[in-house]
Records
---
Amino acid sequence: MNISSAAYDSLSPTNLDNFNNLLRLPANDGIMGIVDASDAPLRITTGTESVEVLPGKRSEVSAYRVERDGKTFVNPTIRVRTGSSFSAELANGLDEETTIHWHGQHIDWRMDGHPLLPVSPDATYRYAYPVANRGGTYWYHPHAHGTSARQTYSGLAGFFIVEDEEERRLGEALDLKLGETDIPLLIQDKMFDESGNFVYAPGPMDEEMGYEGNVILTNLTPNPYLEVVTRIYRFRLLNGSNARNLRLAFSRTGEDELLLYHVIATDGGLLDRPRAAREVFLSPAERVDVLVDLTGFEPGEEVVLRSLPFDPMHREHEMAGHMDMGHHHHMGPARLSDGHEFYLLRLVVSERVDYARRVPETLSESSRQDFAEAATRTVTLSMAAEGETNRWLINGLSHEMGEYPIVAQRGAKEIWEVRNDERSMPHPMHLHGFRFLVLERTGSPEQVSCLAVDDDGRTVSDLGFKDTVLIWPGETMKAAVDLSHGFEGEQLYMFHCHILEHEKGGMMLNLKVVSGEA
Ligand code: C2O
Ligand code: CU
Ligand code: CU
């Protein structure tokens, strides 16, 4: 039974008066607690935890648990240094197979939580690798075959924060501290039942469009607020939803005018310099790090993080002459429709402090590589013919376990030209194992093209390294992919849509990287 309409009134994220729950922050233990894991092996257990998600109720959620020095961490915020060695033994306490996928890490496929290497109930698996990635906001979640949508939704997700010299310099320049003034925000939409548990019950339409909820959790807190002071804050925004896109902006409470903030990082770490923005789209699995400058505010003033309304562009049936069928049939309060506006976090300025730091002019010496000689690989995203069970296809294909439709040479530099069909919906496309740079967007819908910051149609969140990129209906996105790595033998990765119901439904292709000279 879904939650009643009466109970839902106090949970709706469209009413700012509901934003009275103290935001959970990563601290020294507990939920999202910070675990330093550079050269310090972890043991991670998957299982069920009882967590107060809705006020006054206990939810049974699936979670990662780490015990260390007498402290317990649930879905820890794992922090590692570039160049250190990371090691985590997974002990699977779930009653089904799972894996841990280190989303965004440049690692040997055997360490990547690939569905070909599932961990059975009561079994263990050791993930161990040198941290090769540059600093940035990454994350981890399950990736077993056919179950990652449900398992991730059930609560299995955490931050994986990599630090390097450039990150250290930024943190020092702005006097930032993780969990206090440098704040990871995991954003997820959920459905709840009467007793406070998550409901994951996708119907056929949800499998096609993605499963969306009507309660928005930030760090497992519904409708949160946070007391802040007059300084600069860093927010690491991760869209950990199964399917919902966000259009993130800040404004003063009660005002529509959008505040200017600074985008400083994307999926793969810092941009070369901060870029001013008033809004960014953030699709499932994408990250964007922003600086919000509250030095000009007075105690008592408030700022709100919100998702602006947008056209969700579910165009798949339109040209076939179908009516909008009303995507979601269910009992209880309505789903929050895709593209509907809502609030995420209320920031309450509590006191004035002395703070004389400024947003730095440069952040990173990002190395631009030469892709002049790169060959182009074309990829299409489209809907399957009426009546097919797998609804979404890549290059006309659906995922098959043992097949490798994409074969690339180790060390190759490629341009991926990914075209999303007109009769489609937005798909956040994710590549395992490698980062890429967005070179160009063409055919973008107006709500995206109006955000372009250069002649190549790129938006502010296209300006850094990426591992996931949202491609809208009718749009073609070109990206530069460097398939270099130092891992032995054939390497098996995947390219898939990060709407997890689409991934489950086969919108995923295996990618094999074969070593050189062949
Ligand atoms: Cu974050 Cu293959 O996934
Ligand atoms: Cu991934
Ligand atoms: Cu998709």
---
Amino acid sequence: MPAFTATAPGKIILLGEHAVVYGRPAIAAPVNQVRARAVISAAPRRPSGEVLIQAPDIGLESRLADLPGDHPLACAVNGVFAELGISRPLACTIRITSTIPVASGMGSGAAVSVAFIRALSAFLGQVLSDERVSTLAFEVEKIHHGTPSGIDNTVITYNLPVYFVRGKAIQTLRLSKPFTLVIGDTGVASSTAIAVGEVRRRWQASTAQYEAIFDQVGRTVDFARNAIEVGWLDELGLRMDENHNLLRLMGVSSPELEQLVQAARAAGALGAKLSGGGRGGNMIALATEASAPAIAQALSSSGAVRTITTTIQP
Ligand code: PMV
């Protein structure tokens, strides 16, 4: 029996993080330079039903039966089994590897889930629709993030730039021209669940103030969407700057993120902001093909542990 392989890209949130948890729109795009990969092969010599999971990047090698039921990988496997009505599969080994940095706002958890769910369902003889893959991955996201908006599993499953509103049908974006982003990693690992929890506590304490900030983010995202669709990159850059200021007001920036955002702007970025949960992780800078190398260099000199230059395509 051949091995079944599936991969899924990383992602970045262009605009709208955090406010998206509260029903405002956000825009995200896939990053195909980094990927999660799941390979499943039958293990006919092992007892029937035994599923062995190997994730060398996180030092995990375990039988499914030995993982706690609320482990993200157990949740993904059991979700696929339930979806397909399978109780005892062929014995198999599932190996997961990923080049997506973890805990840095690039959707590594969701990408692992999507690759895993696709490979496992193909191994079990049924290819699931994108919608079902995304829904199953969302269930796993709840373990990672507590109250996820669903944007990560959506953009990663569809592998297209999306305009996303929680609970609504996804809208893919029509870009009139490609644009280039330089992603800079602060190297500070940050848990999205903690950042989301902190914003929730502040929102509970000062609801009117936070609702007003989220409304402003929503307007900024809509202007940015329009800028993306007509190819007005100066305007998109301004909206990214504006969104960054609103994220600072929410308290999710950090000294390292501020340093990189400033360095990118000084090196000619059209706009720059933190991306994802914040408090560490990644920032993004809007560049042109010509300015991207200098911006990447400036980010590295200002402490970025990694830069990725990616072009978002129509
Ligand atoms: O840190 P990331 O890129 O996984 O994204 C988190 C985005 C939030 O809006 C902060 C949370 C969410 O579930 O949408």
